[in-house]
Amino acid sequence: EIIERIVPKVKEWQSRPLDSMYTIVWLDAMHYKVKDGGRTESRAVYNVLAINKDGRKELIGMYVSENEGANFWLSVLTDLKARGLNDILIACIDNLTGFSQAISTIFPQVIIQSCIVHQIRNSLKYIASKNQKEFMADLKTVYQAPNLDLAELHLDKLQEKWGQKYSVVLESWRRNWDKLSAYFGYDEHIRRLIYTTNPIEGFHRQVRKVTKTKGVFPNDMALMKLIYLAVINISKKWTQPLQNWALTAGQLRIKFGERMPLTL
Question: How buried is residue 112: exposed, middle or buried, by Cβ count under 10 Å (0-12/13-18/19+)?
Fold first, then answer.
C-alpha cells in the first residue's frame, strides 16, 4: 500500500540532519481538525521555513501538537538543535506570548523580528473605526521610516497624538519595539524578507490548497502524510537562490561576520 510506504518516509524526513546555520527562519503554525478517539480535536502544525547560506528555501521543521504555545515551540527548537542546527541569524515570528524567549533560550545570538503586519492587525482591534484611517496614516510613518532614528521620532509623535486615547496600543508598540524594529538594521532586500511572516504564510496558503478538501483528518498521521506530500511538491520549485542573493549574503556577512560564511 503506497500510503503505508509514506509513513517511514515522513518520519525519516522529519528527523533528517540539518545544516549547522540558516540565515533567515520564519516560524508559524497552521490549524486543523483531527478525529481522536471518536472526538474531533484541534491540531497545530508547526512549520519552520528557512533560507540556507546559499539563498535557497527549505522547510526544516514540521511538527504536530494539540495547540499552539511557546512551550511546544521550545521543544521544536530543541529538536532542530539536536538535528545539527547551531545558529540562526534572524528569526521572524508572530506576536505569540513567550515565543521570543523560547527562541533565545536555544539560540542566544539570534536577532528576532516580530511581524509588523500582525502588530498592526492587533493594534487596529483597539482603534475606533472613525479614527482608523488617520491612525494608520500616522503609524505608517513609523514602520515605513527610512531608518531607526526617524522611526523612533515618529513613534514619539504617535504617542503624543494618540497616547492618551489609545494607551494600550502605544504600550504594546513600546513593549515590543526591540523585536518590531530589528529590520531597520538592514537594506531593503533584507527588510522585505524579514518585516513580516508573509513568506511562511504564503507557503501555508499553498499547503491549504492541497488540504482544504478534507474537513477532518482521521488521525495525526493522515494529516502529516498529506502535508508532507504537499511540501515535497511545493519544494520542487525551491531550486534557485532568492533574487539578489549575492547582495543579501554580502549584507549578512557585514552584519554577522564569521557567522555568515561566504561561499565563493
Answer: buried
Q: What is the rounded CA–CA span in Å between residue 222 and residue 59? A: 19
Contact partners, residue 171, CB within 8 Å, separation at least 6: none
Instruction: Report the alpha-carbon distance of residue 91 to residue 194 in Å, rounded.
Output: 8
**pLDDT value at position 3?**
57
Q: Is 0.85 surpassed by the pTM of this model?
A: yes
Chain segment 247-256, per-residue pLDDT in tens: 999 999 999 9
Helix 2-14 / helix 220-234 crossing angle, nearest 10 deg? 80
Which letter, b or e, does each residue of 124-135 get, where b requires 16 or more Cβ atoms within 10 Å of its Cβ? eeebeeeeeeeb
CATH topology of domain 2-115+196-259: Nucleotidyltransferase; domain 5 (3.30.420)
Number of H helices, E strands in the chain: 12, 5
Using alpha carbons, select from 80, 78, 95, 72 the residue that is nearest to residue 50: 80
Residues with pLDDT less than 70, the chain = 1-4, 263-264
User: Could you tell me the residue ranges of all domains in the chain?
Assistant: 2-115+196-259, 116-178
Among residues 97, 103, 43, 51, the alpha carbon closest in space to that of 73 is found at 103
Q: Is there a contact between 20 and 85 (Cβ–Cβ < 8 Å)?
A: yes
Paired strand residues for 61:
48
